[in-house]
Amino acid sequence: MNMFRFIIFTATLIASAAAAPAKLDQRQAPAGVPDYVLKYAPLVWLHSAEQYFPSDLQSQLSNTIPRVNFNAVAAPNPLNLTNLNALGADVYLTSKDDITTNPQWIKGVKPDGAAKTQNAITAAVIVNDKGNGNVDAFYMYFYAYNWGGEVLGIDQLQFGNHVGDWEHNMIRFESGTPTYIWYSQHANGQAFKYTSVLKDGLRPLAFSSNGSHANYAIPGTHDHTIPNFNLPGGVLEDHTDKGALWDPLLAAYYYAYDAGANRFAAYGGDATPVEWLYFRGRWGDQEYPTSDKRQIKLFGQAKYSSGPTGPIDKQLNRSNVCPDNGNKCILRTILVPKRAGDEVVEGL
User: Fold this and answer.
1) Which of 63, 85, 165, 189 has its CA 20 to 30 A from that of 232?
2) Which is more confident, 62 or 335?
3) 160: how many CB neighbours lie within 10 A of its CB?
């Protein structure tokens, strides 16, 4: 191989490495995180038209004001991830900017060619070891803004826009082997056998819907009008495809959760903030009243709704693979938007 060909070959290898998600030994996960929690961690495909990418946790605090009933309240200054727990459950982290102006900070950070959100901590991995080899690993994803999407394809008719957006996958492990995976979607979601879902190697794929960031197991169109159904079209549609690839492990905090004590402990020690996980308030604005010129409300649905609660409110010690929300826990075995062949399992 002459020198010119060697240079081209080397440059090609470097470019290929930069474009691929980091290998396990390149990820900066702290010591103590179970290797299988990393090995089987989901990869997320963001939509090709996405405008609101994963967002840095501290950036959300820096660009919001704690409010209760739309009034500013006393709060630590500056507000950060180590003192957020000083705020009460009635607090809304309210945007300093008029959201209709689409400020830059709500757009988040688009993953680079290596699937990393550079200079932004955009995820949290929470491990609940229940003993006897039973472990639930939660992969929490944060976005500064949720665009609810169009209703019936009408741009002016939108429901469910809100500041702040927490989504997640949960994988249930038995003695280090993944058995089931949960995909959060709006007020509910879907559960699948691990062996049924699409993967990149061992890592399951999640497809984040355009704007709303609901997680699905397949690309395409998903109507979510009826809980527990995933239809190929309808009134309230989510859209997923292979836009930008995001590896949440590359910019995440890692925690162990003790359900009995309701306590979090950081893998990696004092350098990782823990206090923010105890905040039970909302990570966005309170739903605007109808007197607000930005608000439209039809059939009980608001164009701008309240921001979400954080990871502590996601049933981290759930019995079923699905959270307990009044719906049956369906463990799906197929990836098409219908229920034929699905398995209804109670108490799992």
Assistant:
1) 165
2) 62
3) 18
